[in-house]
Amino acid sequence: MRWAWYAATTRRTKSPALAPYVPKSAGAQMRYLVKQLKGTRAVAGLLGVSQRTVERYVKDQVRRPRADLAQRLEDAVRQRWQPRVRERARRQAAASTGLVIRTRARFGFTAAPGTTDDARIRDLSLALPPHHAARLLDAQDAGADERQLRALAAEALGEMYFRDGGRRAAGLHVEFTDIEQAEFDL
Length: 186
Known about the structure:
By secondary structure, the chain is α+β, with helices and mostly antiparallel strands. Helices cover 51% and strands 18% of the residues. It has a three-stranded antiparallel beta sheet with strand order 2-1-3.
């Protein structure tokens, strides 16, 4: 299973404040690109059209681009739009809102003798606080592999669900295996 962190922070974000809508019309898309690239000449070079064509779209003199230009325009806008939205959502999750994890996986435990529990499949939906979200997102940014991310998620789930934030089951170590599903939402 792949840990789709970036997909989770963009596709599943419902809040308009976190994921404003990408410009839809050709004029709005051109204006966005002109603003990002700081000029019509750079946009024209990027899209393979004349500078005058870009100016016509900016002024809404032309409203419907050819199919190939429409696709290049949409791709260019999405390429520049999504990283900003993702980064803002990630910063907010790490600083104040945290992440929500929904998972179906096998959880096993190792603890003091006589207190172990057999592993079993559990469905969990749990809000992780910002400090756990920050650790997961920082590890992902640093290039952590799936095993390392799974260990961090297991530690976070262990603390928040099984140890209840330190109020019970001290010393319990959670093993997070046989993952059937794992989704991370903001």
